[in-house]
Amino acid sequence: MAYTTDETLTVLVYSDDRNTREQVLTALGRRPAEDLPELSYLECATTPAVLKALEKGGVDLCVLDGEAVPAGGLGLGRQLKDEIYGCPPVLVLIGRPQDSWLAAWSRADAAISRPVEPVALAGAVATLLRDRLAKRTPAVR
User: Fold this and answer.
1) What are the pLDDT digits (tens) for 40-55?
2) Cβ neighbours, 10 Å, residue 140
3) Domain ranges for the chain
4) CB neighbours (10 Å) of residue 83?
């Protein structure tokens, strides 16, 4: 991947539960994989905060809590994919593996079951961010 050493990638983490947001940040750390730039985080507890952050731009990935209330991350993910041109990749945290069909309905790019398993989350996030970087970085020939 081609990126500058001072570049950071911005991950938006949405959940009404501060503990869930903290689990995601702790699981991902500063860098989910050696070949990726460091991460910075935008923590959001409400849907309006998510929409405002995405309106500003600069978000590289959204991690949405499917169990958040009153607006769950599954419905919010579908809304983002429908309404935001060039929506960043969306990863949803689902309550159980059987809810993967809901993740597909939401048009999420990836889904991880809760409780957050750090290796699985870091792997999924790394894959989504690599894809994002590959699409924005022109191929050098």
Assistant:
1) 999 999 999 999 999 9
2) 5
3) 57-135
4) 10
pLDDT at 126: 98
User: How many helices (H) and strands (E) in the chain?
Assistant: 5, 5
CA 139 to chain centre: 25
Please state the three-class secondary structure of 118-132 as a single string: HHHHHHHHHHHHHHH
Sorted by sequence, the CB contacts under 8 Å of residue 67 that are 6+ apart come out as 15, 17, 20, 73, 93, 94, 95, 114
Q: What is the DSSP letter of 34?
A: T
Question: Would the pTM of this model clear 0.90, i.e. be above it?
Answer: yes
d(CA 59, CA 47): 15
**CA-atom Rg of the chain in angstroms:** 14
Name the CATH superfamily for 57-135. Response regulator (3.40.50.2300)
* Distance, CA of 135 to CA of 132 (rounded, Å): 5
Residue with token string 């994002």: 132
Buried b (16+ CB within 10 A) or exposed e, 122-138: bebbbbbbeebbeeeee
